[in-house]
Amino acid sequence: MAFKKEVVEIIEPRDVFVGDKNAPVTLEEFGEYESEACAKANEVVKQLLEEYEGKIRFNFRHFPMTNIHQRALKAGEAAVATAQTGKFWEMHNILFANRRNLGTTSLKLHSKEAGVVNKHFLDELVNATYGWQVQGDIREGKDRGVTDVPTFFINGERFTGKVSYDELSKAIETSLKKVKKKAPAKQRA
Q1: pLDDT at 74 (0 to 100)
Q2: How confident is the model at residue 11, as a pLDDT?
Q3: Do residues 102 and 34 touch, judged by C-beta distance below 8 A?
Q4: So what's the architecture of 14-180 in CATH?
Q5: Is the pLDDT of residue 188 over 50?
Q6: Domain segments of the chain as ranges
Q7: Is the pLDDT of residue 186 over 90?
Q8: Section 109-134 average pLDDT
Q9: Which of 76, 90, 87 is nearest to 38 (CA)?
Q10: Phi, psi of 70 (to 5 degrees)
């Protein structure tokens, strides 16, 4: 008797965006949920998404600094778990707001606050069901030269300025100009 194995499609962190999916500029951050600097960066990103509505989209990638923040890894896994139910961004903001309270039981409560209804959420956390996705982000981050958080990329290019609204908006403006210059050339071809 053969058993039919159920194939479960997992939504990867690299595929979770907020903002216009056709936006000309993609802002990508490698970060983690216990970091004070990442929490501040999250507030900047919220401003940028509002200011550049329709022009940028944002992707958050997990890069827990486990040597400093022991609970950041599980928090990343919890965020990936909520992405499976379409509640990633709600959980993302709740995790930053509660960055000093990221124990496993608290993560379960945060998921409920985000609107996740999943009886298996705690089991998935304990069993590291989404650990591979977080590890994949860490590997990709290392391959791209990430050593600290937050690290931003704008349209694939590493942002090297100070993580502030002014600096990031200047970089976004530059990227928007580059995209506009390329667009007419494509139309002529």
Answers
A1: 97
A2: 87
A3: yes
A4: 3-Layer(aba) Sandwich (3.40)
A5: no
A6: 14-180
A7: no
A8: 94
A9: 76
A10: -70, -25
Residue 5: the pLDDT is 61
| pTM of the shown model | 0.90
The CA-based dihedral angle spanning residues 93, 18, 39, 77, taken in that order and rounded to the nearest 10 degrees: 70
Q: Are the C-beta atoms of residues 64 and 95 closer than 8 Å to each other?
A: no
Write the DSSP string, the chain: -PPPPPP-PPPPGGG-EEE-TT-SEEEEEEE-SS-HHHHHHHHHHHHHHHHTTTTEEEEEEE---TTT-TTHHHHHHHHHHHHTTT-HHHHHHHHHHTTT---HHHHHHHHHHTT---TTHHHHHHTTTTHHHHHHHHHHHHHTT--SSSEEEETTEEP-S-SSHHHHHHHHHHHHHHHHHHHHHHHH-
Report residue 156 as tokens: 């694939």
List b or e across 62-98, with b for residues whose CB sees 16 or more CB atoms inside 10 angstroms: bbbbeeebebbbbbbbbbbbbbbbebbbbbbebbbeb
- Write out pLDDT tens, residues 31-67: 999 999 999 999 999 999 999 999 999 999 999 999 9
For 65, phi then psi, to 5°, come to -90, 75
Instruction: Please name which of 134, 183, 175 lies closest in space to residue 157, comparing C-alpha atoms.
Output: 175
Cα–Cα distances in Å, from 17 out to 25, 86, 88, 89?
12, 11, 9, 9
